[in-house]
């Protein structure tokens, strides 16, 4: 584990963005771990879309609110949300009450389900955009990490063409980082080596 000595104490080195209790917990346990469960993939599709224009910390604080509001991230249930449920969501202080994002989440759920039916799973569809299976990067500073890549542009183009909302190349790259399509932990971070050692079937 990467560590450093500060004032006589041994401290874990993390990526610089993990500064709060919530973000550290998420960084240490989830960020960059390969995700192949469709419900969890839908969770990240929904949450990354909700983040647009906001900080990830804002979304992490509301994650449980989203879980309750969006049927534990079951895309088939969300796809059936009616106008009454839409009104309930707009009044729900536990989520970001943005009409376009709420409508986008429900619309995305419908397309997500169609892709499950077409490809057997959303996982089978979305992991086609990983290069070649999971990119292992070796960034030394956060400033080196790109906001988007050729793969995230391709994902954005495909998803957008199918009708998905809030799937720009930057949002798609954040999704790829979150679900482990790329390992973007900086090399000094203790999680870089741990994530690199994971096989695609470990999670």
Describe the structure.
With 203 residues, the chain is mainly alpha-helical. The protein has a single domain, classed as Endonuclease III, domain 1. Helices cover 51% and strands 6% of the residues. The chain is built from eleven helices and four strands, in the order E-E-H-H-H-H-H-H-H-H-E-H-H-E-H. The strands form two sheets. A two-stranded antiparallel ribbon has the order 1-2. 33% of the residues are buried. The N terminus is likely disordered.
List keywords for this structure.
disordered N terminus; single chain; 6% strand
Strand/helix succession? EEHHHHHHHHEHHEH
Architecture (CATH level 2) name: Orthogonal Bundle
* Biggest pleated-sheet summary: 2 strands, antiparallel
How would you name the CATH homologous superfamily?
Hypothetical protein, domain 2
Beta-strand percent range: 5-15%
Domains, number: 1
Q: Helicity level, as a percent range?
A: 40-55%
Structural class: mainly alpha
The first-to-last residue Cα distance is 21 Å
Shape: globular
C-alpha Rg (nearest Å): 17 Å
CATH class: Mainly Alpha
Q: What topology, given as strand order, has the largest sheet?
A: 1-2
Q: Based on DSSP secondary structure assignment, what is the total number of beta strands?
A: 4
Number of helices: 11
Unreliable residue runs: 1-8
Mean pLDDT rating: 91
- Which fold name is given in CATH as the topology? Endonuclease III, domain 1
């Amino acid at each position: 584990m990467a560590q450093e000595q500060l004032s006589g104490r041994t401290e874990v080195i993390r990526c610089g963005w993990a500064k709060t209790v919530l973000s550290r917990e998420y960084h240490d346990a989830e960020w960059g771990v390969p995700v192949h469960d469709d419900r969890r993939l839908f969770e990240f599709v929904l949450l990354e879309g909700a983040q647009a224009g906001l900080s990830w910390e804002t979304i992490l604080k509301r994650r449980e609110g989203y879980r309750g509001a969006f049927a534990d991230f079951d895309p088939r249930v969300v796809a059936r949300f009616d106008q009454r449920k839409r009104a309930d969501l707009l009044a729900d202080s536990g989520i970001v009450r943005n009409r376009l994002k709420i409508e986008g989440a429900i619309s995305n759920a419908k397309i997500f389900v169609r892709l499950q039916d077409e490809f057997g799973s959303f996982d089978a569809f979305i992991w086609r955009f990983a290069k070649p299976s999971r990119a292992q990067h070796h960034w030394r500073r956060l400033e080196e990490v790109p906001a988007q890549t050729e793969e995230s542009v391709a994902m954005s183009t495909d998803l957008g063409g199918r009708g998905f909302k809030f799937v720009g190349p930057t949002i798609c790259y954040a999704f790829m980082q979150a679900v482990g399509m790329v390992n973007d932990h900086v090399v000094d971070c203790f999680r870089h080596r741990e994530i690199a050692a994971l096989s695609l079937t470990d999670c």
